[in-house]
Write a structure and sequence with these properties.
single chain; alpha/beta; six-stranded parallel β-sheet; 14 helices
């Protein structure tokens, strides 16, 4: 009996290891799961930015130059297209049984069209729903309608849509995607990196940390608004931001006005360095601005903080707030400066008293519910199952 050929899967993504970002981590976990389950994998991605480090995987990885914004990000329609257009021709030239696409929907479109021409199925990995994110931004209605139509086309064309959570799956279903095509796999962090074991950043003053993307719909400015109230009780308290995003300039201006000298922006740092700062923080800050259509989001920064044993202060409502409250990961506060300040003060008061009784429970919760390796294996199983039925 002839040995069955391994499933050939091509993954198209603008971000991939060693680049820092939730998408890069998530896709690497998927690919690791595919390789573990016997697939032959090729990743089509961008050339990593300078200083990102070296990454030499045991599978084929092809990189292409890409336009980046001044912060080094592949973010913005021109930047997206600088990846998407070459990717379309690269996908036409590559042999594959199946293709996996990561957002944005423009990448989904080139994957959908190239897959149609090559007569092969594709999977769309929906970490979020872009149309919902746009509703929280000051974007022309025409752009929102076009992106909505584009995203709907991609989602309906996909042989399977992998969703990172039930709320995201619900958003996908609103585009008339049949329920049998939607597969929820969960999300998480690398528990080997985001753990309580390891170096701790040294800081002279107590601080809160915000890591990852800073976008308008996240509304991280609420923590800067709360900081002067916190400093009435704890005059040395600081906030440290690590990451980047479209709201960064606004946050810097707000900090200069409301809390000069007490807010620091450290840029993008490797996960191992972020973990050091998280371990040393009194608390980790996470926010979702309510009423923007994004209350279903479950930011991975929640899991990163809890994995290090650090309590989370969540500002907002919805699924992220529920995870923090129900999982015992910290405090969920209303998206209002005084309520957020009260939660931050409570964390500082607890840390000054040496309160660490919940740290082990937070770490255990992440290991049980938010392991990135586990979600990557589940996503890989969904892709493999589809490939074996085609």
């Amino acid at each position: 009996m002839a040995k069955q050929k391994p499933l050939k899967v091509v993954v198209a993504t603008r971000l991939y290891a060693p680049e820092v970002g939730a998408a890069a981590f998530r896709l690497k976990a998927l690919v690791d799961g595919l390789v573990e389950q016997g697939a032959e994998v090729e990743v089509i991605t961008t050339r990593a930015p300078k200083g990102a480090g070296v990454f030499r995987p045991p599978y084929r990885l092809t990189r292409w130059p890409v336009l980046r914004d001044p912060g080094g990000n592949v973010r913005g329609y021109v930047q997206y297209l600088s990846f998407d257009i070459p990717a379309f021709f690269r996908l036409l030239a590559v042999k594959a049984d199946m293709v996996v696409s990561e957002p944005p929907p423009t990448t989904g479109l080139v994957v959908a069209l190239s897959s149609l021409l090559r007569r092969r199925p594709f999977v769309y990995y929906a970490a979020d729903v872009w149309t919902e994110a746009l509703s929280a931004m000051e974007v022309p209605e025409t752009v929102k309608r076009v992106m909505g139509a584009l995203e709907g086309f991609v989602l309906r064309r996909a042989a399977k849509v992998i969703a990172v959570s039930e709320p995201v799956a619900g958003q996908v279903a609103r585009f008339n995607v049949p329920a049998k095509r939607i597969h929820v796999v969960g999300n998480g962090v690398d528990t080997g990196v985001f753990s309580p074991d390891g170096p701790v950043a040294a800081a002279a003053k107590p601080y809160f940390i915000y890591t990852g993307t800073m976008s308008e719909w996240q509304g991280a400015g609420i923590f800067i608004e709360a900081l002067p109230l916190v400093r009435e009780r704890f005059p040395d308290a600081e906030v440290r931001f690590f990451g980047q995003g479209t709201d960064e300039d606004h946050l810097k201006a707000l900090a200069g006005t409301l809390a000069p000298g007490a807010v620091y922006f450290g840029g993008v740092v490797p996960p191992s360095e972020a973990a050091q700062w998280i371990r040393g923080a009194a608390g980790a800050l996470v926010s979702i601005k309510p009423g923007q259509g994004y209350d279903f989001a479950k930011p991975t920064k929640i899991y990163a903080a809890a994995g290090c044993g650090t309590p989370v202060v969540f500002a907002g409502q919805g699924d992220g707030a529920a995870i923090v409250a129900d999982g015992g990961l910290g405090s969920a506060a209303a998206y209002e400066a005084q309520a957020v300040a009260d939660a931050m003060i409570a964390v500082l008061a607890d840390s000054t008293l040496g309160g660490t009784q919940s740290a082990d429970a937070r770490v255990a919760w992440v290991a049980d519910h938010a392991s990135l390796a586990a979600s990557g294996r589940v996503a890989a199983e969904a892709v493999m199952k589809l490939g074996n039925t085609e």
